[in-house]
Design goal:
This protein has twelve helices and ten strands. The chain is an alpha/beta fold. A six-stranded mixed sheet has the order 1-2-3-5-7-10, with helices on both faces. Strand 1 (7-12) and strand 2 form a beta hairpin. The longest helix is centred in the N-terminal third of the chain and has 16 residues, at 31-46. The protein starts with 6 loop residues before the first strand and ends in a 10-residue tail after the last helix.
Length: 258
């Protein structure tokens, strides 16, 4: 466990775990908490012993939005000078895979944090929403952009305009959530997946994430060129030599991330 105030961290089998830990307010995200999440993610990203990052919430919810009390008296100028989304922008730069486990409420900023994850697993009782419109504001940490890229313009508009909660089943059908689990199985099954991914060659995992993310924004031909460069780059790794030699020798490879 760590000395953070609003999160807890631990390591298990090359997986760096981050627990959102404000259960008394359903893990509502305040600015210091987001800063701690970023610090933990970046620490794991630099640590060669960590191959996968796992994110989940303590208590009855993943994260029930942003801390409204913290923002209620802000204005446009104070927001601009504070530049509170700089930490969120740095979350986008994490190279290692981020696997999220969502249960209970996943609302507003909590939904935006979930969408930062590369893969998302959810309890079948989880509920998702962007309720910002009911406060006369809108998502500001990537919600309109990430959701639209995942599910398309019209469905994203309908969901964000409504402010309504949608069930995990619908989030799964729309491709936001990879797999649904019974609530009691969610953490165990998601962590099991994270540990399996941590057994894969780390450099290949990293460059695949990078190439797939480029595919979202790049035209096809540019994306193909980017993919090809990453493909070539992996042939300079020791893991590539080990992987192919192990295949030829019909043994299990020993990947080291070099």
């Amino acid at each position: 466990m760590s000395d953070y105030r609003f999160i807890q961290t631990e390591v298990a089998d090359h997986v760096g775990i981050v627990w959102l830990n404000r259960p008394e307010v359903l893990n509502a995200l305040n600015r210091p908490m987001v800063n701690e999440i970023l610090a933990a993610f970046e620490e794991y990203d630099r640590n060669d012993e960590i191959r996968v990052i796992f994110l989940a919430g303590r208590g009855r919810a993943f994260a029930a939005g942003a801390d409204i009390d913290e923002m209620a008296n802000d204005n446009s100028i104070s927001m601009e000078l504070l530049n509170q989304f700089a930490d969120w922008d740095r979350l986008n730069l994490v190279k290692k895979p981020i696997i999220g486990a969502v249960h209970g409420f996943c609302l507003g900023g909590g939904f935006e944090l979930a969408l930062v994850c590369d893969l998302l697993f959810a309890a079948d009782d989880a509920k998702f929403a962007f309720p910002e419109i009911n406060l006369a504001v809108m998502p500001g940490a990537g919600g309109t952009q990430r959701l639209t890229k995942l599910i398309g313009k019209t469905k994203a508009l309908e969901w964000i305009w409504s402010g309504e909660m949608r069930l995990a089943k619908e989030a799964h059908e729309l491709g936001i959530v990879n797999t649904l689990y019974p609530k009691d199985d969610l953490l165990e099954e998601t962590l099991k997946y994270a540990k399996r991914l941590a057994e894969k060659p780390p450099l290949a995992v990293r460059l695949i994430k990078e190439a797939v993310n480029k595919a979202v924004d790049y035209p096809l031909q540019e994306g193909m060129f980017f993919e090809r460069k990453n493909f070539y780059l992996l042939f300079s790794s020791e893991d590539q030599k080990e992987g192919m030699q192990a295949f030829i020798e019909k043994r299990k490879p020993n990947f080291k991330g070099h």
